[in-house]
């Protein structure tokens, strides 16, 4: 199958009750040799904002057999300045080239005055920020010709100012723009520990009917001056706390495409495939398919 010369499927849907992984070059050959291990793959858009090279070669091969999600990390939807037109055009080119089933971005900002800060920085939850982010989401959706999913962030501090909660902000954003929500369960757990709030209450306050994709990941635990800090580093297996909250989420959302993110300390393919199998079992159990 993986060696077929047929063209990539156009807009192949991601099955709702399915598990995918972030595509890494180290795993391409193993993935193609083990196509039953996962149902779909996700890539970071910024890694494909050029014309050719090994990454495109690998993705073109994988795309023949696996539905695709494209996840952006650098559009800066929450930035105070206008969206970078060149970056948006490059994102549109990636989407046009690979025609993914899902496209997503972060509720964050990552640059200013032409400088890219290589981080996903928080947005204040004010009416002014909401209007700005909504305008940027509208602009992005118009450029791509499709709705996008916006991911809830991981947070390490809270602004003193604010007109609403994060869940109210995300709810209003989906209502104003028609975008969906990328529900990152790991980000909820990380933020809940760091900011001392109830993760279940947060989850239940989200517009869960708009969820189009779910992210699961591992995180690091650090202790700083006697205070526990969770760091969203995608460098370990999904934690038990995240898996438990994932089960709670599924009870409300029903089946949703679920991605395992692993961006550092990359494990051998069999280890990642085994983790995908475990998540698939949780998904099946939550949906009454024991």
From TrEMBL:
Pfam families listed in its UniProt record: MbnB_TglH_ChrH (PF05114)
Tree of life domain: Bacteria
Alphabetical list of HAMAP family matching this protein: UPF0276
UniProt record similarity statement: Belongs to the UPF0276 family.
Protein name (record): UPF0276 protein SAMN05421720_12713
């Amino acid at each position: 199958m993986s060696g077929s010369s047929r063209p990539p499927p156009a807009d192949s849907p991601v099955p709702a009750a399915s598990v995918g992984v972030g595509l890494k070059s180290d795993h391409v050959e193993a993935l193609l040799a083990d196509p039953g291990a996962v149902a779909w793959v996700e890539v970071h858009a910024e890694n494909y904002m050029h014309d050719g090279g090994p990454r495109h070669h690998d993705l073109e091969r994988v795309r023949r057999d696996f539905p695709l999600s494209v996840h952006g990390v650098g559009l800066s939807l929450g930035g105070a300045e206008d969206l970078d037109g060149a970056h948006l055009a490059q994102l549109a080119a990636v989407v046009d080239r690979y025609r993914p089933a899902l496209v997503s971005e972060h509720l964050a900002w990552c640059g200013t005055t032409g400088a890219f800060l290589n981080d996903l920085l928080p947005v204040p939850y004010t009416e002014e920020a909401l209007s700005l982010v909504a305008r940027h989401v509208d602009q992005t959706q118009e450029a791509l010709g499709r709705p996008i999913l916006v991911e809830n962030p991981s947070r390490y501090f809270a602004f003193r100012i604010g007109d609403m909660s994060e869940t109210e902000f995300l709810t209003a954003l989906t209502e104003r723009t028609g975008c969906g929500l990328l529900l990152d369960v790991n980000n909820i757990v990380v933020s809940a520990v760091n900011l001392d709030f109830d993760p279940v209450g947060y989850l239940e306050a989200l517009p869960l009917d708009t969820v189009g994709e779910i992210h699961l990941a591992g995180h690091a635990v650090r202790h700083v001056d006697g205070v526990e800090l969770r760091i969203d580093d995608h460098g370990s297996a999904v934690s038990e706390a995240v898996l438990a909250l994932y089960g709670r989420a599924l009870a409300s959302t029903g089946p949703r495409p679920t991605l395992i993110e692993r961006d550092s300390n990359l494990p051998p393919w069999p280890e990642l495939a085994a983790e995908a199998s475990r998540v698939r079992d949780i998904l099946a159990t939550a949906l009454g398919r024991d």
